[in-house]
Design goal:
With 74 residues, the chain is mainly α. It has one domain. The chain is 57% helix and 0% strand. The chain contains three helices and no strands.
Length: 74
């Protein structure tokens, strides 16, 4: 049983972006399906991903700085 095929038009930039994401013998449909499945994931899967990360320390420092700057302007 063959699945129905559709023709779509892509900007060159989009085509090249998808081309870079191809792995092995992936079709463009495979790449798009993978991107769609990532988009539809439950955000809770990422809970704790930045645990013990320098990024959190930098974000905390930045947030404190922005809050103190905002209070000074009031």
């Amino acid at each position: 049983m063959h699945e129905a095929m559709k023709t779509i038009t892509l900007r060159d930039e989009t085509y090249h972006s998808l081309l870079v994401l191809k792995e092995g013998d992936d079709s463009f449909s495979d790449v798009i399906d993978r991107l769609i499945s990532k988009k539809n994931r439950d955000i809770r899967e990422y809970a704790g991903a930045l645990h013990n990360s320098r990024v959190l320390d930098e974000l905390h420092t930045f947030t404190k700085k922005m809050r103190s700057t905002a209070k000074a302007r009031i």
